[in-house]
Amino acid sequence: MSSVIWNSIFTLVMLGLLALAGVIARANADEAQKAYELAVNNFQHEQTTCAAYFRIVGECNDISGFKKNASDYKKMSEHMVKLMFVTGQQAKLSQDAMLSRFDMEMKGMFKLMKNSCSNISSIMNRYMDRCELVAKEPSKVMSEYAMKALGGRR
After folding, report:
1. With helix as H, strand as E and coil as C, how does the chain read?
2. For 56-108, how does the pLDDT look when each residue is reduced to its tens digit (9 = 90+)?
3. Higher pLDDT pick, 72 / 149
4. How confident is the model at residue 154 (pLDDT cuts 50, 70, 90)?
5. Which residues, 6+ apart, have CB-to-CB distance to 39 below 8 Å?
6. How many other CB atoms are found less than 10 A from the CB of residue 132?
7. CB neighbours of 73 closer than 8 A, spacing ≥ 6?
8. Per-residue pLDDT at 25
9. pLDDT for 134-146, tens place per residue?
10. Domain ranges of the chain
11. CA–CA distance, 125 with 132 (Å, rounded to integer)
12. CA-based nearest residue to 6, from 93, 83, 85
């Protein structure tokens, strides 16, 4: 695995932990642990959703002949898959659970598209903006989940 990917994974993990530390500093230990587990689990699920989204968009771009876009989306999907496994390990998810989440997300998106890339706008409308945020600003998304897990308190 390239050093860029490892650096990204390390940065993601550290930013997530720092974000959580700042948000849950005033919570008691049990509440903090539960909030951490919930936030990491939810963040991993969203990474999984985005990995599926990027994979499908890449495949549809490939089918449509947009090779450069296809390559970029496929690389982003591969990156998100690696991150979802790292985050899933932090959430104490089994490999089967992580793969099952991914499979369910893929199936759900194909259902929205009625199994046709002609209907790709159905998933782009729902996932594009959020998945771009998850990919570009993971610490911001992790902080959102930490705040939700603690009921919005700072």
Report:
1. CCHHHHHHHHHHHHHHHHHHHHHHCCCCHHHHHHHHHHHHHHHHHHHHHHHHHHHHHHHHHHHCCCHHHHHHHHHHHHHHHHHHHHHHHHCCCCHHHHHHHHHHHHHHHHHHCCCCHHHCHHHHHHHHHHHHHHHHCHHHHHHHHHHHHCCCCC
2. 999 999 999 999 999 999 999 999 999 999 999 999 999 999 999 999 999 99
3. 72
4. very low
5. 20, 142, 145, 146, 148, 149
6. 14
7. 54, 55, 57, 58, 61
8. 55
9. 999 998 999 899 8
10. 3-149
11. 12
12. 83
- Joined together, the tokens standing for residue 149 give 């897990």
* Residue with more model confidence, 89 or 153: 89
The number of beta carbons lying within 10 Å of the beta carbon of residue 87 is 25
CA 45 from chain centre, in angstroms, equals 6
Of 13, 10, 27, nearest to 142 by C-alpha is 13
For residue 3, what pLDDT is reported? 54
pTM of the model: 0.80
Query: What tokens were used for 92?
Result: 């104490």
Length of the chain, please?
Answer: 154
Count the Cβ atoms, other than its own, within 10 Å of residue 6.
12
